[in-house]
Amino acid sequence: MEGKLYAWIIERCLPLKPDTVMEADVHNNSVPLENGSLAPVDRLRRDRSDSPTPGLVEGTEPGAGLDSAMFVHAQSFEDLTADGEQEEEEVQVQEGGDGSERGLEVEKPRAEGEEREETQGQQEEEVQPGGGRVKEEDINSEGWRSHRKHVFVLSGKNIIRSIHAEGYKVVFLRKSPLVLVGVSRTRQSERELTRELLYIYYQIISLLTLTQLTHVFQLKQNYDLRRLLAGSEHLTDNLLRLLDRDPGLLLSAVTCLPLPSSTRDTISSSLQAAKAKSLVFSILLAGSRLVTLVRKKDQVLHHMDLHLLFNLVGSSSSFREGEGWTPICLPKFNTAGFFHAHISYLEPASELCLILVSTDREDFFNLSDCKRRFLERLRRRSAYQALQEALQAPSYPVAQVGIPELRHFVYKSKSSGLYTSPEIPIPYQCEEEQERLMRLYQYLHSRMHHPTRPLRSIYRCADKENLLALVTSGFELYLCFSPLGTKALAVSTINKLLKWIRKEEDRLFILNPQTY
Amino acid sequence: MMAERRLSSLGESPLEVEVGPRLLRVKMVLLGGSGVGKSSLALRFCKDEFKASTPTVGCAYLTQVVCLHDSTLRFEIWDTAGEEKYHSVTPLYYRGAHAALVVYDISKKESFMRAQLWLKELEKQYIPGETVVVLVGNKADLSDTRQVPLQVGYRLAESKGLLFIETSAKSGEQVSELLMTIAHRVKQSSSEVRGLIEWPEAECVGVLQGERSSLLGACCSVGS
After folding, report:
1. Does the first or last residue of chain B, that is N or C, have fewer Cβ atoms within 10 Å of its Cβ?
2. Per the database record, which ranges form the FUZ/MON1/HPS1 first Longin domain (chain A) (predicted)?
3. Which residue of A116, A128, A310, A318 is the best one to mutate when testing the B interface, meaning the one whose CB has the most B CBs within 10 A?
4. Are β-strands B99-105 and B23-32 bridged in parallel, bridged antiparallel, or unpaired?
5. Which of B2, B74, B85, B170 is the mutation pick for testing A, counting most A CBs within 10 A?
6. A20-39 pLDDT, tens per residue?
């Protein structure tokens, strides 16, 4: 099946120093490249150059919010891997903790004592397109063995981190009380695979909470976890599919539905007005794109939790027919407790899905009323029509940017945690090619974020395309050019692209995030 | 048959208001193991459709209006997830329900065992005479691979004084009959024991007419 090498014919890495090599039409040249602090300085926020350059500081890059950030500040990959090590300690804290960190009351799950005579829980997941109930495969079959990737969830102790053998990588992630094992024939790095396992782990936590998970294994060491995970296989399948396809999970960022800023502001303020006491987050989605997010003051959502919500919505048909009401743990917010999410589509056949995250499990009717009020307000202010129109063209072709030989790009604003990307162009539209493009980006990403030898930029000629990646303190940019492009051309396009994104940032990003 | 109905209530908060002519709220809950067809039954009740679906996440809330000759009932249907991980929240939905459907799959014996566990659970909670409980053997279209004989289901229902019916959400067989019977039964038991909450709405959005009721079961609601 897969497993063949994707050929890098010419392996050339040419590190560029963006601040020296590239011409910088600097408007704010007094600003040092690294400001050393994660929180952007207020003075800089106002300094939004129309011709931004790579030497921008975080907080002034195109796409950076004008006010506070919506998400927990996430550097990206480091955030994930670093917390992998912290987590062990966190578990200890959680066990004795009161479960209401960050000042919000979150309901603790009721763990029940479970009795069942079975040995180690073992769960197997495959990448399967489409929702629907997938029949469990026979693990002795050739078909099962030929999958590109397998994920096992075990309980118990293990100290091995990874095994490399005959083109297979076996990666272990120990998150007490579980051990996640990934078996892969892809060329992904150990770190990439670990990150994917971490997502799977958080997916499990989002359904059960860490408290409940720890509890069942305390009661019974050889508890068969499949019992509690039954019915959620499609969530894991879909998550693995997203990990292969969605740049957001790779970049630790979320993309927005392009929308005139006046329309988006109207939607945000309508959502803001439809509040309830127990509401923490109100999120409007169009497919897997964010339309807007309103949050309780002082509460921030982690992009990973948002991706888990996207995955929940995207892989379940049950919110289509009625209003969904479900307990959900947002593990990056709090692994100990459940929120309760009211999830419903604005119309049965619509792509627009509203998620209202509440702390009160008995507040269904109140939230249902919030949705009604939101819709009413939206219609009254005729934003609904504008939103419907925007859905007709949910993205933009790369040609709009007007850069020759540019096929595709992904731009992430670090301070907002939002990214933008044009439509997948024709050469990459089939599933296989789309995943190949993603693997190229994944490769660039892993080079840029290498734990010991990180790069600021990289240019690469492959047989079917040329690639350029650039990471500064303000943004990350990945570009894909046709093989006819040259390095000089690629480098010269960066400022033009940044300028274009700056011009369009009102439409492509959420610049005015709202709170209740 | 099933006419159109409103998908979602969009929000009337469950205050105990009593205005207007005879629009009554009926809280109905669907219980049972995973994959027995609870969501498919709910979809049949509300839209008279059948679609393959993924397992329900948490719970889904749907509504359907049923018109009887002298009153109109608005069913507020709580379609619960069958998976064990959601059991801790299920009592929210059967608490105070006027009708509870305990569903099993006639082609899976295990689901029948689970239905019995649900019945035990319900018995701990219900207020005698208030909840109309129906044991529903779903997937009647799979009678070729039947593992739970009709008589076994019937006898269980009879021994506990429940209504019993076999349905097929896939073909639609017996589904509207089931809903009509519940409507009558709920109406009847409520006028005997306690009033249903009336709604300040006069118009009847969806109409489900028909007086056929071909339930096999004995005729008392739980506990009477």
Report:
1. N
2. 150-239
3. A318
4. parallel
5. B85
6. 333 333 333 333 333 333 33
